[in-house]
Design brief:
730 residues, alpha/beta, 8-stranded mixed β-sheet, 27 helices
C-alpha cells in the first residue's frame, strides 16, 4: 500500500494547471518588467514630482498589468465546476471522493473492471449439478430450477435413488451447506442472502438437493437442511477462503461420512485447485476410486467445457479421515490454524465429489456501455477470479472480445501473466480492443496498473477487497464498490459506485468529459478576457495616455463581474458527440496554440475598444458635460503637462482645476475611466456567449442552451450598474 501510494500518479488536471500556472507566471513577469522599463524615460517627468515617485507610478501600472493577466477567479471556478460535477455523478450513483478525479475520468483510456457484480448482477444461482458416473468419462448432469435464492425449487430429474447414504451428490450437498458462511433469510415473502453470493448459491443448491429425500419444512425454517445438519455436527474450525488458494475448508465432527469417525474436512473451491488436492474420487455407486493424473486431466477438460458456457464452476470434496487436520480440536484450533502458509498442505488427500455450476447473469445495460466505450476509444479489460473459459464466455457475451479475437493474444490467466518476461507483459497489453484476465490475484492487478501507466494510459481500476487497495491507490482512478466493497478499498479509492454497476463508470466518464469541456470553456473565457485587460494596459503604457483602470477595478472585474459567467459556463450541456470522440491526450495543453491565437485577437479588439473609448472622451467626445477637449498629442504626453504654457481646462464633476490644470489627467479622468470599465464589462459579457463552444457559432450553440449563463450575465451587468449609480459603492 505504501509503495502504491508513492507510485500514485498526479491527475492530468493537476499537471496541466501546474504547467499553465508556471508558463503564465513567467509570461506575466516578463511583460510587467517590459512595461515598467519601456516607461523609464517618463520616471523623470515633472508631474510625478521626483524620479522615485515616477518609478513607483509605473510600477503600479506593472502591478495592474499583473492583476489583469492573472485569472484570480480560476481556482474558485474550477472548484465549483468540479463540485457541480460531483453532485451530478452522485445523482448517477458515482460518489466522488477526490475532486480532481472528476476531470481525470474524462481522459480515461482503459477501464480495468472486475466481472462479478460490476459486469454481472452478482445474483448467483446454481443451475447445474455434475458428478462422476461409472468413470471420469461418464459425467452425469442435473439441471437445477433457476429462481435466484429461493431454496424451494427443484433439481430436475433428481430422485431418492441418487441420494442414498454414501452417494457423492448427498455428500456434495453437505459440503455446500456446512462449508459456508452465508445464510438465506426470507423477508417480505422473498428470499435474500446474507453473505457472499457464491456461498449463498451453494447453500440454496444444498437445500434443493436435500428436499428430494429429507423431511424438511420451509414453513418452520428458511434453511431447514442446514439447521438439521448443524444439529448433528460439531464445527471444529475453518480454513478461510483466500484468493491465492482459491479454496475454503471446514473441519467437522459427528457425521461419520464414508463410515469414518473423527474429524472430517469439507473442501470447496476452484475445480482445478480442488482436483489437484484430491487423491480419490467417488462415483455414482458410492465407490471411492484412485484419482490418477490422467483422470484429473479428463475431468478438467469437461469442467472447461462447462465453463465455456459462461458458468462459474465450483468443486466439492471431503477428506474423510481428517488428513493433516485429524488431531485439531475446538480447544487448539485457534492455535493450529494460524499458520496460513500451511493451508495448502492441510487440504490435501481429499475425495472428489462433484461440481456445482453457478450462473451470474450479465447486467443488461452493460453491453451497450461497453459499445459506448468502444466508440469513445476506451479499452475495457475484464478481470476476474473465475476460470479462463468462464471469463472468455462472459467477455464474448458482452463484446469485450469477439469470436474473431485471438484468444492466445487477448486472454490470459494471472499465472500466465506473472510468468511472462517484462517485454512480453508490455506486448500483451499493447494494441487496441479488450483483454481478459482470469484467475487474477490482487498482486496481478497492481502489476497491470503499473504496466498500463508505463504505456501512457490513463487507467481506471475497480476493486472491492482489502488486497485490492494497492491497485486502487496506484491507478489514476481507483473505483471501489459501494455494496460489496470493504472500507479499506473505499478509503484507497477516488470514486465509489453506489450500485456496483459498470454502466455507472461509463456515465461518470461521459460526465468527466463534459466537465473538462466546460472547464476549457470558462478558462477560454477568463483567459481571453484577461488578454483584453492586458492589451488595454499595455496599449495605455505604449501610447503614453493616463491609465484607464487601477488594480482594484481590475480585481473587481476578474473576481466578481467575470466570476459569475465563468461559473455559469460550468452548466453547459455536454456535446451530443462527446462519447464519439477519442480520449484526449493527457499531454494536450489546456489552451492550444490555435485557441491562444484566436483569443489574443479577441483580446486585441477588447484592448482597442477600452483604450479607444478613453481617448475618445478626452479628444473627441462632446457630451454636454462641459469637459475640455485636448489633442491626442497632449493626451499622450500628459506627464509633461507642468511644462505647458497657458494650458487651462474647465472645471467639471465638482472638481476645481484652476490652480492645477494637470489634475485634469489624474482626477479628471473619472468619467473616461468609467466608460472604459463599462466597455470592458460589456465586451466580456458578450465574450462569455462566445465561450459556450470552442468551435461552433451561436447559430449552432445558441445562448439559451445554458439559461444559467444568461442569468449570470444579467447579474454581472446589474452589479456593475450598482457600483456606477449607487453612491455608497462608487
Amino acid at each position: 500500500m505504501k509503495d502504491a501510494g508513492e507510485n500514485e500518479e498526479q491527475t492530468p488536471l493537476k499537471k496541466k494547471l501546474d504547467d499553465f500556472g508556471e508558463k503564465l507566471s513567467y509570461l506575466i513577469g516578463i511583460v510587467c518588467l517590459l512595461v515598467w522599463l519601456m516607461n523609464y524615460n517618463k520616471f523623470f517627468d515633472e508631474i510625478h514630482g521626483t524620479p522615485l515617485k515616477g518609478c513607483i507610478y509605473y510600477f503600479k501600472i506593472a502591478i495592474a498589468l499583473a492583476v489583469a493577466a492573472i485569472p484570480e477567479g480560476l481556482p474558485a471556478v474550477i472548484t465549483t465546476c468540479l463540485a457541480l460535477g460531483t453532485r451530478k455523478m452522485a445523482a448517477n450513483n458515482a460518489i466522488v471522493r477526490r475532486l480532481p478525479s472528476v476531470q481525470t475520468l474524462g481522459c480515461t483510456t482503459v477501464i480495468c473492471s472486475d466481472k462479478t457484480g460490476t459486469l454481472t448482477k452478482n445474483e448467483m444461482c446454481a443451475v447445474e449439478l455434475a458428478y462422476i458416473g461409472t468413470s471420469v468419462n461418464d459425467i452425469k448432469m442435473f439441471d437445477i430450477e433457476e429462481k435466484s435464492y429461493d431454496p424451494t425449487c427443484v433439481v430436475k430429474g433428481l430422485t431418492a435413488n441418487h441420494l442414498k447414504d454414501g452417494s457423492p451428490i448427498k455428500e456434495l450437498a453437505i459440503v455446500c451447506s456446512l462449508n459456508s458462511t452465508a445464510k438465506i433469510v426470507k423477508e417480505g415473502g422473498k428470499y435474500k442472502r446474507q453473505g457472499e453470493p457464491t456461498e449463498a448459491a451453494l447453500l440454496v443448491a444444498a437445500e434443493k438437493i436435500a428436499s428430494v429425500t429429507e423431511n424438511i419444512n420451509f414453513a418452520n425454517s428458511d434453511m431447514p437442511y442446514f439447521d438439521k445438519l448443524t444439529a448433528q455436527v460439531e464445527k471444529v474450525g475453518v480454513l478461510e477462503f483466500s484468493s491465492e488458494r482459491k479454496t475454503m475448508s471446514t473441519i467437522i465432527k459427528g457425521l461419520n461420512l464414508n463410515k469414518q469417525a473423527g474429524n472430517q474436512v469439507l473442501l470447496k473451491g476452484a475445480p482445478e485447485r480442488v482436483i489437484e488436492k484430491c487423491k480419490f474420487y467417488k462415483n455414482e455407486n458410492g465407490e471411492v476410486k484412485a484419482f490418477t493424473e490422467a483422470d484429473k486431466n479428463i475431468l478438467l477438460e469437461k469442467v472447461n467445457g462447462m465453463a465455456s458456457r459462461g458458468l462459474r464452476c465450483l468443486a466439492g470434496a471431503i477428506i474423510y479421515d481428517g488428513g493433516n487436520l485429524k488431531d485439531v480440536t475446538v480447544a487448539n484450533a485457534s492455535e493450529k490454524l494460524t499458520q496460513f502458509d500451511k493451508y495448502n498442505e492441510y487440504e490435501t488427500g481429499g475425495c472428489f465429489l462433484g461440481i456445482v455450476c453457478i450462473k451470474d447473469p450479465v447486467r443488461p445495460e452493460v453491453k451497450q456501455s461497453i459499445a459506448d466505450c468502444n466508440t469513445a476509444g476506451i479499452r475495457v479489460i475484464m478481470i476476474t477470479g473465475d476460470s479462463k473459459n468462464t471469463a472468455i464466455a462472459i467477455a464474448k457475451e458482452l463484446n469485450i472480445i469477439t469470436d474473431k479475437s485471438d484468444i492466445a493474444r487477448d486472454c490470459f490467466t494471472g499465472q500466465e501473466f506473472e510468468a511472462m518476461k517484462e517485454q512480453e507483459r508490455i506486448r500483451c497489453l499493447q494494441g487496441q480492443g479488450g483483454k481478459v484476465f482470469s484467475r487474477v490475484e490482487p498482486r496481478h492487478k497492481k502489476d497491470l496498473v503499473k504496466y498500463l501507466i508505463d504505456l501512457g494510459h490513463i487507467v481506471a481500476m475497480t476493486g472491492d477487497g482489502v488486497n485490492d487497495a494497492p491497485a486502487l491507490k496506484q491507478a489514476h482512478i481507483g473505483i471501489a464498490m459501494g455494496i460489496t466493497g470493504t472500507e479499506v478499498a473505499k478509503e484507497a479509492s477516488d470514486m465509489v459506485l453506489a450500485d456496483d454497476n459498470f454502466a455507472t463508470i461509463v456515465k461518470a466518464v461521459e460526465e468527466g468529459r463534459s466537465i473538462y469541456s466546460n472547464m476549457k470553456a470558462f478558462i477560454r473565457y477568463l483567459v481571453s478576457s484577461n488578454i483584453g485587460e492586458v492589451v488595454s494596459i499595455f496599449m495605455t503604457a505604449l501610447l503614453g495616455v493616463p491609465e484607464g483602470f487601477n488594480s482594484v477595478q481590475l480585481l473587481w472585474v476578474n473576481l466578481v463581474t467575470d466570476g459569475l459567467p465563468a461559473t455559469a459556463l460550468s452548466f453547459n450541456p455536454a456535446d451530443k458527440d462527446i462519447m464519439k470522440q477519442p480520449p484526449r491526450d493527457e499531454k494536450d495543453s489546456l489552451i492550444s496554440n490555435w485557441v491562444l491565437f484566436r483569443y489574443t485577437v479577441v483580446g486585441m479588439y477588447v484592448g482597442f475598444a477600452t483604450v479607444g473609448i478613453f481617448v475618445w472622451w478626452y479628444v473627441w467626445a462632446e457630451t454636454g458635460d462641459g469637459h475640455t477637449l485636448v489633442t491626442f498629442d497632449q493626451l499622450s504626453h500628459w506627464s509633461e503637462c507642468p511644462t505647458w504654457v497657458g494650458f487651462q481646462v474647465n472645471n467639471v464633476f465638482g472638481l476645481d482645476f484652476s490652480k492645477d490644470p494637470c489634475q485634469y489627467f489624474i482626477k479628471g479622468k473619472v468619467k473616461a475611466s468609467t466608460l472604459s470599465l463599462s466597455v470592458l464589462v460589456t465586451i466580456e459579457m458578450l465574450n462569455a456567449l462566445n465561450a459556450i463552444s470552442e468551435d461552433n457559432s451561436l447559430l449552432v450553440m445558441p445562448p439559451w442552451i445554458n439559461p444559467y449563463l444568461i442569468l449570470a450575465i444579467i447579474a454581472s451587468i446589474s452589479i456593475h450598474n450598482i457600483i456606477l449609480y449607487v453612491p455608497f459603492f462608487n
